[in-house]
Specification:
- The protein has 306 residues and is mainly alpha-helical.
- It has twelve helices and no strands.
- The longest helix has 33 residues.
Length: 306
């Protein structure tokens, strides 16, 4: 086993119940970090850029705190898995030694520093520089996930390509999830907003995001499982979960297309039923996205061949 792989242990032989804490902590960290990066990234890609509001700053600070807490839980759960001991039995010396001997320590240093920067910038009412700084710090925070799981275990030049693809995959996913969060809030806001313009304006960015997700997803999958895929990989827990993830991703694409080509024109025409349809569609798309994140958290600790 390489040193890099110890940043996020693969546990194919352990019952899933025993790694629930590790998977849950990874899932919570993913959600928090995706939103920390995605909210300001969406702001940068929006056609009409607006200053970050006080509520958005508060939300970013809270997500940064959640991301830090979930990451600390993930790190301790990873150390416990590496040491083959219960989480509550971990001692300070064991944690310190493992963090120093594996990439996990560097990953946590970069991530917590980036999250602290997000919280700091969110607390300071900067104007023009606020949004780019938040996006940069958030991108660094979510980017550290590429040095955990399977991407962190890939060595040499292939590892560099795998991690680069994973970073772009994470940034694209973050922008999509951040946009969904904004759209959901605006869809349920009492005040009137130009929802049709907002959805239409995101169409071009959304197309780029989908293309990036597909391309980098293929690179990531081939980097993990190799080519050609054999029957054992396709029928393993990893292969079946990957298939489920792709089905859910297709469902998200279908809902996004429905929003773009059916609901957005209906909103622009002022149809009364358009807004309720939009709310249901956005909630469904968000729910599918969260399930995809949960699957990704589980995939990161499974062996493709097991």
């Amino acid at each position: 086993t390489s040193t890099a792989s110890k940043a996020s242990p693969s546990l194919p032989s352990v019952d899933l119940v025993e790694v629930t804490g590790l998977v849950l902590s990874r899932a919570l960290a993913y959600v928090a970090l995706l939103l920390v990066a995605g909210l300001p990234l969406y702001g940068l890609t929006a056609r009409a850029r607006v200053p970050v509001s006080g509520r958005q700053r508060l939300a970013l600070a809270l997500f940064a705190l959640l991301g830090a807490a979930a990451s600390a839980w993930w790190a301790l759960a990873s150390v416990a898995a590496m040491a083959a001991m219960p989480l509550l039995a971990l001692g300070r010396e064991t944690v310190t030694v493992v963090l120093a001997a594996t990439p996990l320590g560097a990953v946590m240093t970069w991530r917590l520093t980036a999250l602290a920067a997000v919280a700091l910038v969110a607390a300071i009412p900067l104007r023009s520089a606020g949004l780019p700084l938040l996006a940069l710090a958030g991108a660094v925070a979510i980017g550290t996930m590429a040095w955990s799981g399977h991407a962190g275990a890939t060595e040499g030049g292939a590892g560099t390509v795998h991690r680069a693809a994973d970073v772009f995959h994470l940034l694209a996913a973050a922008t999509w999830l951040g946009a969904l969060a904004i759209f959901v809030v605006h869809a349920f806001a009492r005040a009137e907003s130009d929802r049709a313009f907002e959805l239409a304006a995101f169409a071009r960015t959304g197309s780029v995001i989908v293309a990036l997700l597909v391309l980098t997803g293929v690179v990531n999958s081939l980097s993990i499982a190799g080519w050609p895929l054999d029957r054992a990989q396709l029928t393993s827990r990893w292969g079946l979960l990957l298939g489920l993830k792709l089905v859910l991703f297709a469902g998200m694409l279908g809902l996004a297309a429905f929003n773009r080509w059916r609901i957005t024109p209906a909103l622009a025409r002022g149809e009364a039923a358009a807004l309720p349809h939009l709310r249901r569609s956005l909630l469904a798309e968000t729910a599918l996205g969260l399930v995809v994140v949960a699957i990704v958290a589980l995939l990161g600790v499974l062996d493709p061949a097991a």
